[in-house]
Write a structure and sequence with these properties.
The protein is an all-alpha fold and about 325 residues long. Helix content is about 65%, strand content about 0%.
Length: about 325
């Protein structure tokens, strides 16, 4: 699945033609399949002849920070209003400080000069970004953001059986994984907030159709007119289905309208309810994995991991006991 890092994700209503970007998540691979994918990726990826400036990550990182903070505040407001929130939203708000710490570490540990030196991808959806960024993206996507140091080592070693990475790229693995995890959390956070807003809008529509509160019930033709020219997001449609089913026969025109609209979108009420429940379950797992991985990464000995995947260190160890002294002699300002 292709993901555009530069697509704008702000400033649109809950009900509209486009939903937020999908999480960085693809088919979950076993460790053996993950190694095979690393070899295929290494054979497919091509880099530019000179590293160059590449496409900047700083802008996206600032936007990710802003979106995550806005999501945190929106969920916090829902909690104060004693509204129900999903487990994924609860994970996000309870562990927001961990995401903030990751963003601080990324800003501190990614010097511009070092970023420019990294080999950049020459093609594909991530063209212009460092090759190691594509590597980290694939690892996160096929592990559902669950960090395992041993799996990462095997993934990187498998990649290097086809295409060796530079020492700078190996050093950049840790910070690049953090960048992709933050990206994934941002995508999840925006989908959480967008879905919640869509459900609230569906509740407001259902209240008008059912005459909730002091007002009289509106006719389906009047209440549904503002939604005629929009694609109905899944969360909106599911909430409306659940609110209107088994209600007074007076709302039957609204349910008929909803069934017809869903048919034009290639689905049915039962199908979207089932799919939405599956999506919420998957989102809960992804957000939990991202937060857990961020915690684990802070406890990893990255120097030891670097040595375990470095082809240079492997060659030195094969030649004697130079590996330890070689590591100690490396530049002290290399990013962890």
């Amino acid at each position: 699945m292709k993901h555009s890092l530069l697509r704008s994700l702000t400033g649109r209503p809950a009900v509209g033609p486009r939903e937020p970007e999908e999480p960085v998540r693809s088919e979950l691979f076993s460790i053996e399949r993950l190694e095979q994918h690393a070899e295929s990726l290494a054979a497919a990826q091509r880099v530019t002849r000179t590293p160059g400036r590449g496409r900047p990550l700083a802008t996206r990182l600032r936007e990710n920070s802003r979106v995550l903070l806005a999501a945190y505040r929106a969920i916090g407001a829902a909690i104060r209003e004693e509204r129900a929130i999903t487990p994924a939203a609860e994970w996000l708000v309870d562990n927001f400080h961990i995401a903030e710490e990751q963003l601080r570490e990324i800003r501190d540990d990614l010097p511009r000069g070092f970023y420019r030196q990294l080999p950049k991808l020459a093609g594909g959806p991530l063209a212009g970004y460092p090759r190691v960024f594509g590597l980290a993206w694939a690892f996160v996507a096929h592990t559902d953001s669950l960090f395992d140091p041993q799996a990462l080592c095997r993934f990187v070693r498998a990649y290097q059986r086809v295409q060796p990475l530079t020492i700078g790229e190996l050093w950049a693995v840790a910070i690049t994984l953090r960048i992709v995890l933050v990206e994934n959390l941002r995508r999840a956070a925006e989908r959480i907030v967008s879905s919640r807003a869509a459900r609230q809008e569906a509740d407001a529509l259902a209240d008008r159709l059912l005459g909730a509160g002091d007002g009289a019930a509106e006719t389906a033709a009047t209440a549904l007119r503002p939604f005629e020219q929009t694609t109905l997001p899944r969360a909106f449609a599911v909430q409306l289905v659940q609110r209107l089913r088994d209600q007074d026969p007076a709302v039957t025109p609204a349910l008929r309208w909803l069934d017809e609209r869903l048919a034009t979108q290639g689905t049915t009420a039962d199908a979207i309810v089932r799919e939405e429940h599956q999506r919420q379950g998957a989102m809960n797992v992804t957000v939990r994995n991202v937060i857990t991985s961020m915690r684990l990464m802070s406890a990893v000995d990255w120097a030891e991991l670097f040595e375990s995947v470095s082809l240079v260190d492997a060659a030195l160890r094969a030649d004697g006991d130079h590996g330890v002294s070689a590591f100690a002699a490396r530049e002290p300002d290399s990013p962890p």
